[in-house]
Structure formats: C-alpha cells, structure tokens
Write a structure and sequence with these properties.
- The protein is of the alpha+beta class and about 130 residues long.
- About 25% of the residues lie in helices and about 40% in strands.
- The chain has 1 helix and 6 strands.
- Strands 1-2-5 form a 3-stranded antiparallel β-sheet, with no helix packed on it. The protein has a 3-stranded antiparallel β-sheet with strand order 4-3-6, with no helix packed on it.
Length: about 130
C-alpha cells in the first residue's frame, strides 16, 4: 500500500483556523477604529461646543503703571464668565495679570479695560476666557 494524502474538498467543512483568526482580527480592528473615532468626536464636540466665551484683543495702549486694553468678547446670550489678560515688560517679565468678568444678555461686548502693572508693560496678551 502506498501512503497518499487526500485533501478535503475546498470550503466543504468550514473555515481553516487561519481564516477564523483573520476574521476575528478584522472585527477587533473595526471595533477599535469605531471607538477611536467616537473618542475623537467627543473631544471635538466638547472643545467646540462647550466654549461659550471667546475674546480678542483689538488694541492696547501701554502706560507708566497700567495698560489700556480694548477687548472684544463674543459669548452666548445669558452666559457669564471671565477673560484673563496679562502684560509683560520689555525683558519678558510678567508685570500684570487680571481677570475681567463679563455677563448679561449681549452676545458681543466691546470694552476697554485697565490692567494695572507693577512697572511699564509693553504687551497685552489674552491668556483665555472661561465660562462660569
């Protein structure tokens, strides 16, 4: 007698173990990809959707012991919060920092605020705005 091997008919008795492993890896990859996409979407919505107050420094006028800052604030109607502004001296040292509060029903506020400094400031930098 001769020892011959017979192959089973292709596709008749189910998948091979390699095909099953490939299928499981594809499912795991799809699930992980969907979770990553959902996480990115959540952080994007939280960053854009929850930021109810934004502002921009239009101009500033440095003085001897203060800096006059023209600030334009955009916010949701009825939202309240504050914006933080700082000033630096010519050598880069911080000479003043303050929070300015904004509230009310207006959605756009133009306001000139005075930032007191410990020595002459050369800049007015908006650090950020936060809703209450």
């Amino acid at each position: 007698m001769s020892a011959s091997t017979t192959r089973l008919p292709e596709g008749r008795y189910g998948r091979s173990s390699d095909e099953r492993a490939d299928h499981k890896l594809k499912i795991a990859g799809a699930v992980l990809g969907a979770l990553l996409l959902a996480l990115i979407g959540y952080f994007a919505w939280h960053y854009v959707g929850q930021n109810k107050i934004s502002a921009e420094v239009i101009t500033f006028e440095p003085g001897k012991d203060s800096v006059q800052v023209h600030l334009e604030v955009r916010k949701d109607a009825g939202a309240s919060g504050y914006c933080t502004i700082r000033s630096q001296a010519e050598n880069g040292a911080e000479v003043g920092r303050a929070d300015f509060r904004f509230s009310g029903d207006a959605t756009r506020i133009d306001k000139v605020v005075t930032l007191r400094t410990t020595s002459p400031g050369t800049t007015a930098e908006l650090l950020g705005c936060h809703a209450d």
